[in-house]
């Protein structure tokens, strides 16, 4: 991506990784000026949040708490990778599901 496009949307891209509230704020702010860099990271952050929530609910429902902990640690590692990419101004997908997040959530931002 162009350096100017990245610098314009970098703050909102970083904010999108800060809890669900940050993701919602980034979506609202980005809706008026649709910056591709920000949109990319919003989709990554939203996908990670949704994966964590659904995975924890499913594993918790079946009482598989050890796998729930493992999932949360795995999501934390992916979250750190995504956040660092946003901080560095890169559009690097998170491993395993990042490409799917871009496809599944292309309607977001």
Output the keywords:
109 residues; mainly alpha; 5 helices
Question: Would you write up a description of this structure?
Answer:
With 109 residues, the protein is mostly helical. The chain has one domain. The protein is built from 5 helices and no strands. Helix 1 runs antiparallel to helix 2, helix 2 runs antiparallel to helix 3 and helix 3 packs antiparallel against helix 4. The longest helix has 26 residues. The protein is elongated, with a radius of gyration of 14 Å. The model has no long low-confidence stretch (mean pLDDT 92).
Layout of strands and helices, then pairs:
Layout: H1 3-15, H2 19-33, H3 36-61, H4 65-88, H5 98-104
Summarize the structure.
The chain is an all-alpha fold. The protein has helices at 3-15, 19-33, 36-61, 65-88, 98-104.
Structural class: mainly alpha
- Overall structural domain count: 1
Mean pLDDT level: 92
Order of helices and strands: HHHHH
Q: Which regions contain 5 or more consecutive residues with pLDDT less than 50?
A: none
Q: How many alpha or pi helices?
A: 5
Q: Give the strand tally.
A: 0
Principal-axis shape equals elongated
Radius of gyration: 14 Å
**% residues in beta strands:** under 5%
Most strands sheet: none
Helix residue percentage: over 70%
């Amino acid at each position: 991506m162009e350096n100017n496009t990245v610098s314009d949307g970098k703050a909102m891209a970083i904010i999108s990784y800060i809890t669900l509230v940050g993701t919602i704020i980034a979506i609202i702010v980005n809706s008026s000026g649709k910056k591709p860099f920000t949109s990319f990271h919003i989709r990554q952050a939203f996908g990670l949040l949704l994966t964590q929530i659904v995975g924890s609910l499913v594993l918790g429902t079946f009482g598989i708490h050890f796998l729930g902990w493992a999932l949360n640690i795995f999501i934390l590692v992916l979250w750190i990778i995504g956040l660092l990419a946003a901080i560095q101004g890169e559009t690097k997908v998170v491993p395993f599901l990042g490409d799917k997040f871009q496809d599944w959530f292309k309607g977001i931002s």
